[in-house]
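FORM 7B: Structural annotation worksheet

SECTION A. Query
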Amino acid sequence: MKLLLSFALIAVIMVYVTPVTAGPVSEDDIQNSFYPYKSGFPSFGGYEPGVVVNQGNVEQFKDVLDKALYRFVKDGWVEIKTAPTTDFPLSENYIQATRDNAAGVSLNENGTLDGYVAGRAFPIEPDISDPLAGQKLVWNYQYGFNSGDSETIFPFWWTFRNIKTGKVERVLKFEWHFMNYSHRVSFDPTPKFEKNPSKIYRGIYSIVTEPFDLANTQLLIHRYEDDTKRDDAWLYLGFQRRVRRLATGNITDAFLGTDLMIEDFEGYNGRVTDYNWEYGGTRDLLLPFYYHNDMELATEPANDPDGYRFVQVHGKGNCFPNVTYQLRKTYTLIGTPKDTNHPIGKRVINLDAQTSTMASLITYDRKGDLWKWFPIGKAHPDHHDPKNKGSGVALDDYAVLIDVQADHCTTLQFKSIISDEDNQPNLFTVQNLRKAGK
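SECTION B. Predicted structure
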């Protein structure tokens, strides 16, 4: 009996110590992963695209709403307009990179990857019986095509709003830049910059343009290829004219007085290995995917050279985007911080299956109570600014973080451009912080 138990224990240990390889990836796997609607679009009993989901019928559609959105509709905070599901195909370069490389990817015992070059790391459909399914999904998200290889967001307005009164308390205006140093598929050099001694995977840079008291405040983040290495982050304070390195704990503080933490950016802006990840199943949800140019648009910004206008806001406190939602295949990804002192109890990320992008995030506090809701609207690149046509990126087009415990929200309205015109490694340096701050 002792011998049998010993063999059983060794078998269990081997499951978690031996690297897990993706194995053969067929063309059917590729097609199912990137073209989930080739055989038809999702349906739900009693649902017809074009219906408005409101207090009167919300119970009928409860199963296709995330928990926070269901609560908001039920409480009369917002009504949801719907539209037919549409295809959001990613770049053929990214899909081909998946074909070429996915079979060589392995998941290590510490939760990191070996053999990853570019594309979707694990394109095979997740299996609820696979204890590592959540870990694989989060890597698809982390190395997704959310910003392409390079993205500039400008203008980018963050508006602080009181939910109860709708009062606008403050508007921060930014310019943001995102660039991959490696795993590139569209812009030269591919698949990576050879001159990268620090082995940075991704750089994020932002600068405040208004208001005056925060102008020239800048943020720089380096995320490394080695996910066990902590991010480096620096803040340039315009009013002090100095660069300050951010301590690890600062990424979970409110960023410049907004409702967002640095860790919240893009849904989850942190190391994969800082959380335990669980796959919560597949279901169809109403998600904010749409054609930007067909939406009701705001009058701002007034002087955009392309005539671009932000998505309009509506609902309680003007905290909700006035866009249409589609019924889309969705993976539920649940992340629990390993640090017991982390302010968040868990993140529930609703990943769009086709694009592996986060369409909505629900965060719960350490008591398990609903804390924040963070949807990110996705616009089709061919129905947006002309510069994005053909980019194959499901564009970030708006976001809002609603803090239900504080009755407060921060709406994010912006213009995303997929381009490497402004993004080169010298932009993502501490030296540039000092230079731009002068």
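SECTION C. Observations
The two ends are 74 Å apart (CA to CA). Residues 216 and 411 are 21 Å apart (CA to CA).

SECTION D. Sign-off
Analyst initials: ____
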